[in-house]
Amino acid sequence: MAIGKTSSIAEERINKGKKLRSEGVNLYPAGYPVDITSSEAMDRYGHMDPERLEQQDPSFVMAGRIMARRDFGKASFIHLKDRNGQIQAYIRKDKVSPEDFNVFKLMDIGDFIGLRGKFFKTRTGELTLLADKLTLLSKSMLPLPEKWHGLTDMETRYRQRYLDLIMNDPVKEVFVLRSRIIQAVRDFFVARDFLEVETPMMQPIPGGATARPFKTYHNALGMDLYLRVAPELYLKRLVVGGLERVFEINRNFRNEGISIKHNPEFTMLEFYMAYATYEDLMTLTESLFNEVLRQIFGRTVISYQGTDIDFTPPWSRISLFDALRDMGGVSEEVLKKKEDAVRAASQYEIDLSRSESHGQILTKLFDRLVEPQLIHPTFVTGYPTEVSPLSRRSDQNPDMVDRFELFIGGKEIANAFNELNDPADQRERFQKQAALRDAGDKEAQFMDTDYVTALEYGMPPTAGEGIGIDRVVMLLTDSPSIRDVILFPQMRSKSEI
User: Fold this and answer.
1) In 3D, which of 55, 76, 181 has the Cα closest to residue 118?
2) What is the CATH number of the domain that holds 115?
3) Angle at CA 174, nearest 5°, toward 171 and 178?
4) Per residue in 306-333, pLDDT tens?
């Protein structure tokens, strides 16, 4: 809609508001008691034939936004949208008071209206509320996007999510599903004797993940704080304290790029299970996805971007090196020698810093060559110790750790490992991470002496896992971008566009 046209419509609506106010109408009254929603009405009366419906005595009160109206002089049909759906209403001049009808004549698409009346069926069989009383509940001063063109510009949809939700019902359905998915995940862990906890969002040391943090300053304490990149080290402190099974569903913040797979603020599930191993967590993760899918969809096969994905266990398992060799076409020399890995990364135009280790280069090659191919649920194991500073070393090979990452739909979905509970080993690895930071690696982890102290009091053998909730919702709602499943994604300032 052109700016000039929008301005003229807005001016017209402002004038209508002034006229209504001059007649004593409150444009924004407080509250309105509603006793039925659109979906409840359809469930109760949608199946009834017209004759039986006419015999029903109850009168109901509904409220919602006017999404369309058809005027016929002394009568109008409107489409009323509430939180559960949409229903038709019929306003006739001889059925409402003259004052109410005059108010209705000054109402527009987008206004909120309250209606009282009885249900009937039109000649076409559509359930409709015949109003005998109406109330203006909120005057809309700006017009909604045009009905037939809707709100299609992605930039506008993300910036003005409220309009996106009004105009695009499938968008609302995604976020309803998101809420149900998270609740199903929560129920799964509670049923298995996990305790839901909350850990600090602002931390003096941003540990638990290899990522660049956001930094802030606390005036009263006179100290720098960081928005957390992960809750891991605090959750494991709780395991030390005797909370043997804990989980948290909450925000993480990472000062990194924005893409269809990344948002600087995102939701993670992290859970820790004493006396378990990462192999146990593979089985638990398979059960989690299958239980959520059955509860939400009633099936364990979904379609994601045109491909059917079957979540039936057991899922595929492959080591990082085997995946690079068999799926990525990487030579043995690249797997064994850093110099060859550097040349391979250069061949694929992968950016490297001078401080990157052989293991870091191999994981970047994996991200480029293998990850997009992992459509069906696949556990990738056998990660180098140097890229896993919080993971327990493998008993068979101390250069590797007991760890897996889960990939589905060409995306990393989860990361899990046997937790490192040897305080001396943890201190040494933190020191190596600190050296990397001093060498310029802004994503390397900090030395956290208090966490090492906690380990010195003893942490039982424990396995932990983090699952990206946003990416899970992307998969289960067939959404191509992470912005489609975050209500208010981070956007570049309009002044920079």
Assistant:
1) 55
2) 2.40.50.140
3) 145
4) 999 999 999 999 999 999 999 999 999 9
